[in-house]
């Protein structure tokens, strides 16, 4: 858990002050194991989509992916009634549309993480 939290913290230090990037918060009174490093982007503020960033990482042989696809969007649940969080707004849809999972394996080196950060930063430059 300590290694994964350190990886998360390094990403936050490198990317967290950029307008339009939001890391998943840690709720007061809790301690996340940070098994995954996830973030959301404001596509308008950054001028890119999550898939633009993911594609840039994949082009450099860096594995990244969108956050999990909500169950109600999967074929198995086609036709099943879905109850959003509020009328006209679904948290899970928003996270899926704007979320990215960055590499965060416990054995990841600082150099490997710096490479992810560099490619990420290059992908969001306009």
UniProtKB/TrEMBL annotation:
Superkingdom of this protein's organism: Bacteria
Keyword presence, Nucleus: no
InterPro entries: DegT/StrS_aminotransferase, PyrdxlP-dep_Trfase, PyrdxlP-dep_Trfase_small
Signal peptide residues on this chain, from the entry's feature table: none
A Pfam family annotated for this UniProt entry: DegT_DnrJ_EryC1
One MF annotation (Gene Ontology) recorded for this entry: transaminase activity
Keywords: Aminotransferase, Transferase
Protein name (record): Pyridoxal phosphate-dependent aminotransferase EpsN
């Amino acid at each position: 858990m300590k290694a994964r939290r350190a990886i998360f913290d390094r990403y936050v230090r490198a990317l967290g002050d950029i307008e339009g990037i939001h890391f998943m918060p840690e709720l007061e009174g809790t301690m996340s194991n940070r098994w995954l490093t996830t973030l959301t982007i404001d596509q308008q503020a950054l001028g890119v989509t999550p898939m633009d960033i993911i594609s840039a990482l994949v082009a450099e042989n860096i594995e990244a992916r969108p956050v999990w696809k909500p169950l109600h969007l999967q074929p198995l649940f086609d036709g099943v009634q879905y109850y959003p969080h509020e009328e006209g707004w679904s948290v899970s849809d928003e996270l899926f549309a704007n979320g990215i999972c960055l590499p965060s394996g416990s054995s990841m080196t600082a150099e490997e993480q710096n490479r992810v950060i560099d490619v990420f930063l290059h992908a969001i430059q306009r």
